[in-house]
Amino acid sequence: MININNKVKLLYVMIAAIIGVYIGFEYILPLFIPFVLAYFIAWILLPVVRFLNRKIHMPKLCGGVLSLSLLGSAVGWGLYHLCGIFLQQLTVLLRNMPIYLSVLGAHVDRFCDGCDAFFGIQLGTMRSYFYSSMDGLLSTVKTKIMPIITSQSLNIMIGLAGIAGIILIILVSILLLIKDDEQYHNSFKSSVFYPDIHLVTSKLSEMGVAYLRTQAIMMTFIAILCSLGLLLINNKYALIIGIGIGIFDAFPILGSGLILVPWGIIELFNRNLYSAAILFTLYLGCQLIRQFLEPKLLGNRIGIKPIYTLMSMYTGLKIFGIPGFILGPLGLVIITTIVNEYKHRLNLQAKQE
How far apart are CA 242 and CA 221, in angstroms? Predict the structure, then answer.
């Protein structure tokens, strides 16, 4: 058992870990993002580079260029075809948007008339209020938001040029890391801080990589399943909606059911039994994938309850914006790892005493 003094120390460590994670993600990580990405890509390519170096004595730099080119070509080819399908479906959606707006307007009119009848007010009151509010919103968009977007076009072009420069830095960093990976590894191991840092980073790497890999695989599987299922009901936007459901399903508790179940109920009311059956089957398939595949991929390496993951996502989104969707759970993993490791040391110390 941990005594009172050790509990206070543990509390201090937890507070220090939270502050350190916040400072690291808010101020330090943005400065090193290109090099972090370069490290992970180099880590992926190094087994291929070492194999080529060992079997055919290809220099590591040449092996890095070759493997990086192949990886870039494969990713580019996949993105090209995926974006082509995505843009095609997006074009159809925009082309049919007037029809959808007309149908939506009819539903809104019926809803407003129903509200008028329910509250016993003059017919057309709710409709007039709704459309006047929409006119005000559109006027605000035209007079305030659109000029801001137009004035920022130059900054957008500058930003795109900056992104190109960052990509170049990442590519050069990947090749440098591959070329001298043994020297970097040996210099890191010779550091006096290596034992303590390695103890935490090894567990952090196992937990963090396991979490990110699991979420990426789950999102991919569910997006593919939903896209194929929506193709069965001849949905024109199967890929767009499938990807959206795959991303949304990553949220604990909420998941794909918040989209598929109401959609299936609407199809039931419209007497589209085939479409409803497909949608409910997709929801069941998503749940089966998450229930059976996730434990096999993740196992007990995270040890974080879904509610805590949801809380970390919400906190991350509030603090860091959209990147907080990933940074929140990752920060929770870091804090949990540090606190558990310190708690383990306190328990060992208490047993020795």
Answer: 10
pTM for this predicted structure: 0.60
Angle at 78 between CA 76 and CA 79, to 5 degrees: 65
Three-class secondary structure of residue 2 per DSSP: coil
pLDDT tens-digit readout, 19-43: 988 998 888 888 888 888 898 888 8
Burial class (CB in 10 A: 0-12, 13-18, 19+), 309: buried
Q: Per the structure block, which two tokens stand in for 214?
A: 């699991």
Question: Which residue, among 311, 343, 331, has the nearest Cα to 21 in the 3D structure?
Answer: 331
Largest CA distance in the chain: 86
Tokens of 133: 């509010």
Q: Are 13 and 338 in contact (CB under 8 A)?
A: yes
- Tell me how far apart the alpha carbons of residues 149 and 64 are, in angstroms, rounded to a whole number: 41
Judge residue 39's burial from the number of C-beta atoms within 10 Å of its C-beta, 0-12 exposed, 13-18 middle, 19 or more buried: middle
pLDDT given at position 301: 54
